[in-house]
Amino acid sequence: MPVGTVASVKGVSQDILEELGVQILLGNTYHLYLRPGVAQVRQLGGLHRFMAWPRAILTDSGGFQVFSLNDLRKVTEEGVTFRSHLDGSTHFFTPESAMEAQIGLGADIIMAFDECTEHPASPQRARESMELTLRWAARSKKYFEQHKTEVPWATERTPGPAQTQALFGIVQGGMDAALRKESAERTIEIGFPGYAIGGLSVGEPRPVTREVVEATLQHLPADKPRYLMGVGTPEEIVEYASLGVDMMDCVLPTRAARHGLLFTSEGRISIKQVRYASDPGPLDPKCGCRVCRRYSRAYLRHLYAANEVLAQVLNTVHNLSFYLDTMRAVRHSIALGNKTQFLAGGQSRAKS
Ligand SMILES: [Zn+2]
């Protein structure tokens, strides 16, 4: 899932995203709640209509941003008090208000409100945080069940019963395999149509991330979507898909693109380097995207050096294309029953 933080994948218009084959986008509830505001989006028909995106959308619960962008947050049993990074104003999120916001935004998949446990955390702290997330998951589901027909498009999409969203649960438990198992089992007891693995990519070493993912996945039902939040590099998304992860989101392809870091079948390229100034070749000779078909490395390097807006646009289009190609190859490989034989970029493992 490309990340469209404020109902926009930075630098790329919706028609190009469609052409690239994007099936689902991620929006951030925290950012949309602060600006333009949930009531505004609801009044305009929900996120799909507001951002002119007819395909699927997932919103996160706001929890991760509250925890990562706010040093002054205060967590109680009831919810989290936090300061807006825009104007310093004080806000309060609860499981109920996070559900209310996500129902108002109207994404197809929404997430239970959780506490993203910091790293490192003591065993006692990791358990208390996991228990809080479990209580918040139950409250999220209860509110959702009572209010799910209030989604902006509930009665307009198709005739028949009102359409609703899918609410996913989130597994926490820090870096402790036993806590992860318990969190998975008790989240399944509450019951959701899909499950996310949260609380990773928070500063832990990469081998630990993989261990925790493996330890968690084996306790989540294989016949429901399993969503690993906030990863990763092209090599990592191939690795996690081969372990059984169905969904991932990451700002890396879009954020790296804006800094001139490009993923290619020949490894990573920093387009700002002077050695590309007279290179007439395509960015990635094995990529068929609209950027690689049309422009040279020399031109892309020039745009970046000249600080042209077009540099960000073209770089982002290529990186998203590379990620989407990677996932298409993964799906193809799985369809052939050969899920472990595949490497990122369709060729060889990218050099780092
Ligand atoms: Zn390309």
Description of the molecule:
There is one protein chain. This protein is of the alpha/beta class and 352 residues long. Helices cover 43% and strands 12% of the residues. The chain contains 14 helices and 12 strands. The chain has helices at residues 14-20, 29-34, 38-43, 47-50, 63-69, 95-105, 123-147, 177-190, 206-217, 234-243, 252-258, 290-294, 297-305, 309-335, and strands at 24-27, 56-59, 74-75, 80-83, 90-93, 109-111, 166-171, 195-197, 226-228, 247-248, 261-264, 267-270. The protein has a 7-stranded parallel sheet with strand order 1-2-6-7-8-9-10. Strands 3-4-5 form a 3-stranded antiparallel sheet. The chain has a two-stranded antiparallel ribbon with strand order 11-12. Helix 13 crosses helix 14 (309-335). The longest helix is centred in the C-terminal third of the chain and has 27 residues, at 309-335. It is globular and about 60 Å long. The model is unreliable at 345-352 (pLDDT under 50). The chain binds zinc ion.
Structural class: alpha/beta
Number of strands: 12
**Discrete helix count:** 14
User: Percent of residues in helical segments?
Assistant: 40-55%
Question: Kindly state the mean pLDDT as a whole number?
Answer: 93
Overall geometry comes to globular
Stretches where pLDDT falls below 50 for ≥5 residues?
A: 345-352
Gyration radius (Cα, Å) is 21 Å
Distance between the termini: 23 Å
- Following the backbone from N to C, one meets helices and strands in this order, namely HEHHHEHEEEHEHEHEHEHEHEEHHH
Approximate strand percentage: 5-15%
